[in-house]
Amino acid sequence: GRQRRWDMVSAHSSVGIILYHRQLHSLLLVRQFRPAVYASRWMEAEAEGRPQPPLSAGFTFELCAGIIDKTKSLEDIAREEVEEECGFVVPVEAVRPVTMYVSSTGISGSKHHMFCVDVDDSMRTSGGGGLQDTGEAIEVLALPLDKAQEFMDDHSLAKSAGLLFGLLWLCTNKALSGTASDIYSISS
């Protein structure tokens, strides 16, 4: 019954796509610079008396994702993000819902809708990379599922919670039989 005050950020809800490449037996993920992540690492270094971190400290590994800022279906928005960020054209019926959860619970409470899409090289029409005119510069990477645990355990890599959830979901729902050995760029 006590009156309290909270800071809150109004944020768009979003979609995230667990993008499984059948031929590579890999999760496709994106790597991009996030200014807020870099600023946070910089403030940590300053508070601990360490030198300013390199710009690489601001790069994160994430699922293909985007905000819900259009009056289209969630599946259509997810399909568009797969094409813009990763360069694969997929039919909307191939976009399968996984779950919805609340993200940023302490500051925004926005919804995150998770989908899964299987792709192969025949669906690739570009290198992806995001919308350059809006400042996006996205690198598309393939993470073989047989390297998933090693990737998740590597604390030196900045990974989003959505990516970790998506990777665990995918590993639970796909049989491990890949032969690739490392994360490698598939951007052209």
TrEMBL record:
Hydrolase is among the record's keywords: yes
UniProt record, GO biological process: nucleoside phosphate metabolic process; ribose phosphate metabolic process
Catalytic activity: UDP-sugar + H2O = UMP + alpha-D-aldose 1-phosphate
Enzyme class per UniProt: hydrolase
Signal peptide (UniProt feature, chain positions): none
Keyword Cell inner membrane: no
Localization in the cell: Cytoplasm
CC cofactor: Mg(2+)
Residues that span the membrane, as ranges: none
Keywords per UniProt: Cytoplasm, Hydrolase, Magnesium
Gene3D superfamilies: Nucleoside Triphosphate Pyrophosphohydrolase
E.C. no: 3.6.1.45
MF-aspect GO terms: metal ion binding; UDP-sugar diphosphatase activity
Assigned GO CC terms: cytoplasm
Domain Nudix hydrolase: 10-165
Quaternary structure annotation from Swiss-Prot or TrEMBL: Homodimer.
PANTHER family: UDP/ADP-SUGAR PYROPHOSPHATASE, URIDINE DIPHOSPHATE GLUCOSE PYROPHOSPHATASE NUDT14
Functional description taken from the UniProt entry: Hydrolyzes UDP-glucose to glucose 1-phosphate and UMP and ADP-ribose to ribose 5-phosphate and AMP. The physiological substrate is probably UDP-glucose. Poor activity on other substrates such as ADP-glucose, CDP-glucose, GDP-glucose and GDP-mannose.
Protein name per its UniProtKB record: Uridine diphosphate glucose pyrophosphatase NUDT14
